[in-house]
Amino acid sequence: MKIKFNLLFLISVFVFMANTAYAQPQGERQSSQKAIDVAQSEATASATAAATALPVSSTTAPAPAVASANLDGQKTEFKPASKRDPFLSKQEVAEIERARLAEQKRIIEERKRLEAAEKAKRDEIERQKLLQEELKRNPARAIVNKINVEGILGSEAIINGEVKAIGSTVLGAKVVEVSDSSVTFVYKGQRFVKKLPLM
After folding, report:
1. Radius of gyration of the chain from Cα atoms?
2. Would you state the torsion angle of the CA atoms of residues 125, 127, 130, 131, taken in this order, to the nearest 10 degrees?
3. Which helix (H) or strand (E) holds 158?
4. Mind listing the pLDDT tens digit for each residue in 86-114?
5. Residue 157 vs residues 90, 170, 183: alpha-carbon distances, Å
6. Residues near 171 by beta carbon (within 8 Å), at least 6 away in sequence
7. Continuous H helices in 64-168
8. What is the C-alpha separation between 93 and 167, in angstroms, rounded?
9. Can you tell me the distance from the alpha carbon of 153 to that of 194, in angstroms, rounded to the nearest whole number?
């Protein structure tokens, strides 16, 4: 069946080119005659090859299609210019890229914020540790700035708005001495002096 189809096709081409040749000018007619001769030769060769060829079984599967095409002996392959999704427009791709960059920036800023918070936490722990060590060496430091001597009346003193005599306590600190210009306290075994502020 395939051989008959090839023969009919070549004969049809031959007849068409023969009819066309008479409708053309002399110069083109000669070119057409050459084409007809070539077609006739090819038809003869094809008929000869078809006659000697082995019969092809109707159950033979066709040759599998290939991913690339061969043109003039050169292999061509599909190589896209970019990796952009062909189903997305340029505006959509740009919007997706902007969203990606914004999310990346947010992640970086969040990481920096967490790192800064962690550093501040470590610094505060270290500061409290140093303060505790300082309070062990100098316990009066915890209250010394909370005691204000506001006046002195003989052997008594006005401290934080209250009159205190020797032996009284203020914020856990004991008054042990009152002079004309200062008051001496003892707190957790540590002695310190608060002076009367100059008027």
Report:
1. 54
2. -110
3. strand 156-159
4. 788 889 988 999 999 999 999 999 999 99
5. 84, 11, 8
6. 143, 146, 147
7. 90-137
8. 83
9. 15
